[in-house]
Design goal:
The chain is α/β, with parallel strands linked by helices and 270 residues long. It has one domain: Rossmann fold, CATH 3.40.50.1820. It has ten helices and ten strands. The strands form two sheets. Strands 1-2-4-3-5-6-9-10 form an eight-stranded mixed sheet, with helices on both faces. The chain has a two-stranded parallel sheet with strand order 7-8.
């Protein structure tokens, strides 16, 4: 489906009915990366799921009016307002999508009921991130019949290495790469416009947040790490962070059982 927000066309998909949950994928991916992971968890559950392709990714290729991450956050806020009828919502995000979720917690806190975030960016500038040491755990033979040129990237982002992990990686990560507007996003980063204008105030602003927020982090995440995100924790807020062993940036394939467990807990409270 297509929707026009402030002269920008965005692509999204909607499934089911009931309480709305919005999903925001990571950088270089598209909405399918989260559909593959989360849709199987909604069997016999009544929720409305909305998966958005972020600008410059998937089928949201209209970026002529998008100049920075603040623009993207504002587009998302308007998208939510136009598709939710002002009802309470839950949000789910991964990596850059998790970064945008943190922005939504600040800008749209009156409408958000709960959030489930995996491996969020918290410092847009990679130079300032405390990232983790990556490792591989070989868990059986992997037959690489397709996408052999992408296998090294898989090894660099996944901890658990087996056939199922490779198959899931191909289903969740690779489709988005094909439609990723790398030139557009490289320019955003080069021009230092990847950072939300209020990034430095995130921890303070969220210090007394009262609704449910669950954040899952991989102890071996070489992209965003796990230490910077700890600054979001406060004795006065309701943010829960879980640091998972033997997990990197692709939690979906490294520790899918753990992710499913915490996501189901999140759903029961929403």
């Amino acid at each position: 489906m297509q929707i026009k927000i402030d002269n920008t066309n965005l692509n999204y998909k909607t499934y089911g009915s009931g309480k709305p949950i919005y999903f925001f994928h990571g950088m270089g991916s598209d909405s399918r990366s989260l559909e593959v992971v989360y849709e199987p968890l909604f069997k016999s559950k009544s929720y409305k799921r909305i998966y958005l392709d972020l600008p410059g990714m998937g089928d949201s290729q209209d970026v002529h009016d998008v100049k920075n991450s603040d623009d993207i956050l504002n587009l998302i806020i308007e998208f939510i307002r136009q598709t939710s009828d002002s009802e309470k919502i839950a949000i789910v995000g991964h990596s850059y999508g998790g970064y945008l979720c943190l922005g939504l917690l600040v800008k749209l806190s009156d409408q958000i009921d709960s959030a489930f975030i995996t491996c969020p960016v918290i410092k847009a500038d990679k130079v300032n991130r405390n990232v983790s040491t990556h490792k591989n755990i070989n868990d059986g033979e992997v037959i690489v019949e397709r996408n052999a040129d992408k296998y090294q990237d898989f090894l660099g982002s996944n901890v658990l290495i087996n056939q199922n992990a490779w198959d899931v990686y191909q289903a969740t990560v690779l489709p988005g790469i094909e439609k990723y507007n790398r030139e557009f996003w490289n320019n955003i980063k080069i021009e230092k416009k990847y950072q939300l204008s209020f990034e430095n105030k995130l921890s303070l602003t969220l210090s007394d947040l009262q609704f449910q927020v669950t954040i899952l982090l991989g102890k071996n995440d070489p992209v965003v790490g796990f230490q910077d995100q700890l600054s979001l924790l406060s004795s006065d807020n309701n943010i829960q962070e879980v640091i998972l062993n033997n997990a990197g940036h692709n939690l979906f394939t490294d520790i899918s059982i753990d992710l499913n467990f915490y996501f189901n807990k999140f759903l029961k409270k929403y």
